[in-house]
Amino acid sequence: MKYNYKPQGVCSRNLTFDIEDGIVKNVRFEGGCHGNLQGIAALCEGKPAEEIISSLAGIRCGFKSTSCPDQLAKALHGALNE
């Protein structure tokens, strides 16, 4: 199933991804640090959502209380709880 998430408190403006049988696919960030976010998306491809959440939750970006990886973890958590 395809999901759309509006990140908060970070540079990226939008986040989309698919979850099929608990596996994450097609992660795409709009805005933010393009190269870093492409890398995160590639590393998440084909991995279980729960594994990604446990790896990325709580990561901070500089002085911010969140980060794009943390926002992805929140989006995945929300999607799994729908």
Q: What does the secondary structure layout of this molecule look like, with pairings?
A:
Layout: E1 2-5, E2 12-20, E3 23-31, H1 34-44, H2 49-56, H3 68-80
Antiparallel strand pairs: 1-2, 2-3
Describe the structure.
By secondary structure, the chain is α+β, with helices and mostly antiparallel strands. The protein has one domain (2-80). It is built from three helices and three strands; from the N terminus they run βββααα. Strands 1-2-3 form a three-stranded antiparallel sheet. Strand 1 (2-5) and strand 2 form a beta hairpin.
What keywords describe this structure?
single chain; 82 residues; alpha+beta; 3-stranded antiparallel β-sheet; 3 helices; 3 strands; 39% helix
Order of helices and strands: EEEHHH
The gyration radius over C-alpha positions equals: 11 Å
- Helicity level: 25-40%
Shape: globular
Kindly report the spatial arrangement of strands forming the biggest sheet.
Answer: 1-2-3
